[in-house]
Amino acid sequence: MKFTVAALALSQILSQVHGDGESGFTYFETGGLGPNNWATLPIETNQCGGTLGQSTFGQSPVTIDEATGSACNTGMSQYSFTGGDCAWSDLKFTINNGGVKAEKVGECSFGTMNIPHSPNKFNALQFHVHLFSEHQILGQGTDDGYFPAELHVVHQEETEESFAVFGTMIAVGADDHPTFEYLLQGWEAAAQKVQDECVEGTQTLDDSVSVVKNFDCPAIGSTTIFNGTSPSFPSDSLNVYELPTNPDFGVFTYKGGLTTPPCTEIV
User: Fold this and answer.
1) Calpha distance 250→143 (Å, rounded)
2) Count of other CB atoms within 10 angstroms of residue 83
3) pLDDT digits (tens, 9 = 90+) for 188-229
4) Are 95 and 195 in contact (CB under 8 A)?
5) Distance between CA atoms of 182 and 26, rounded to whole angstroms?
6) How many Cβ atoms sit within 10 Å of the Cβ of residue 46?
7) Cut 0.90: pTM above it
């Protein structure tokens, strides 16, 4: 399955999911809850817009200029990644108005990561995909430095003092991705479940109260990958660190924050 199809399928899954966010924010400027207003949202301990140097971290995402990009460090000697033991059946797939996410269910492990400047390991908690990328790398991706999508693997330090995110840009390619279509099956099945519940709930209201009229449930499901049956997952475990397929990828490291409100500077 070529990523061109994956990007289109993700776009279709997300295109109709644009209501108010559960946490009081959205990615859409309509309604006054979008990114231009995040800094003023009445969210407890809101740090969106920055803390003016009060923390030793900063805000995320960032734009990487061409000079920095051309000097990217491709040496991985200070990084180590250990895959976990979560089976595909241990994953919980969800969709929302900002992207798609996969979390582990139960006590399995997504894996661990060691990074420079910290003696502690970081345990993977979940991973999600933003469409389009949050970070810009000028001179790469599209003309404005964005990519079709961006994968984030969210980690927590073993001391539970901070977080770390392993992010990778996702570009359109001509080759099949060995894992991504299985992820699409999970996310499209989640989208179909939302649609089915919407239809069922609307029918119930129509029959009992007749308060819902001329209401169409959003067609957020897709038959591009998911065929309406249970997803067909591999029997082996998922290694989230093997999702990047470019063996020569470089690494940019910086201290930042969460990319959604309250934008806590702890990453």
Assistant:
1) 20
2) 16
3) 888 777 777 676 666 555 454 444 444 456 555 444 444 455
4) no
5) 27
6) 16
7) no
